[in-house]
Amino acid sequence: MKSQSLIRVAAVVMLGGWLAQPSQAADSLIGMYVGAGVGQANVRIDQRPGNIALGLKENHSAWKLMAGIRPISLVGAEYAHLDFGQSSSTLGTAGTASLDRLKQSPSFFQTEGLDVVQHEAISKDGTRIPYFQIGPKDLPFDGSTPTLLYGYGGFEIPLVPTYEPIAGVAWLEHKRVYVIANIRGGGEFGPAWHQAALKANRPRAYEDFIAVAEDLIARKVTSPKHLGIKGGSNGGLLVGNMLTMRPELFGAIVCQVPLLDMRRYHTLLAGASWMGEYGNPDRPEEWKFIRPFSPYHNIDPTRAYPPLFITTSTRDDRVHPAHARKMAAQLKAYGKQVLSYENIEGGHGGAADNKQKAFMDALSWAFLDREL
């Protein structure tokens, strides 16, 4: 059998014919080997400092060292070489403990004192929803910290780690917290994560977002009066539903180029192409499950709502500005606290150039700063 290589990628390890992933123990990997004439075997790779061994677990009993594989030291290895010759198998040292910086993008905000951690919230149906929390290392955990929660949850688009200098300058440098929720409907965990929030299951995405908000409050990262949310396009639909479903959880909402009228969305601009995501409101059986997540149709004139800032673009060729216009007009008619701004240029991005984008961003961050 030819030599195989062990490559570590995030939480998954591939050894050619070997498949392995971390066990509950931080010092080991559990895997399975499938090979001609060998069958299947559960494998343990012991990674404790100074001693690494490959072992075979027989009949789910004690670990046994495989013949021809001996413990050796492993220093800074990102991969190891396995030789499955007929005579012996060895695990060799690879790499060094030192790292050289090859290239780095310029820094645009002060990151000293900031921490990035990942947590999980439990959604209504028991699903664990991960979220990233970026904020000061000395967070007081007394509910007083202004916090912005961002989400999208649609079209299999993942929210992956990225560098956000505007959020850094406008928010993080002021010892505030920024949170990114990896809710269902997105693509963080592949097609199944997306399909879990399609059509009649769309509320799963909203329940996930609510679970993250409640977890932030329960952990005393923030409190409702200091918790703001922001989303655009499909994310605008998300935060629009937060307004109508759980307004008491939030102190301010920024809703950008949003879908809000789900009864007519498919008749406006590109809306017909999204019926696979949301459903067809012309079919009574589908409108029945769509209506509960159509924010425009769920405004309650007797209910208190947090301050809302809606932005749109006259030239948006994807989501019609009528969504934002109608929602703002209805809320104003009911005497609710709502601000709206419509840029006459810019398409779905909301701005035509950097100057306009800077202005639009300044409006949103100033609104959040004032309200939270």
Describe the structure.
There is one protein chain. By secondary structure, this protein is of the alpha/beta class. It has two domains: 4-82; 114-371, 3-Layer(aba) Sandwich (Rossmann fold), CATH 3.40.50. The chain has helices at 165-170, 191-195, 203-218, 234-245, 275-278, 284-290, 322-333, 354-371, and strands spanning 4-9, 12-15, 18-22, 28-35, 39-46, 53-57, 63-65, 79-82, 114-122, 128-136, 147-150, 177-181, 227-232, 252-256, 308-313, 338-343. Strands 7-6-5-4-3-2-1-8 form an eight-stranded antiparallel sheet, with no helix packed on it.
The largest sheet is:
8 strands, antiparallel
CATH topology of the largest domain: Rossmann fold
| Annotation field: number of helices | 8
Q: CATH first level of the largest domain: which class?
A: Alpha Beta
CATH architecture of the largest domain: 3-Layer(aba) Sandwich
Query: What value does the Rg take, in angstroms?
Result: 26 Å
How many domains comprise the coordinates? 2
Helices and strands: which structural class? alpha/beta
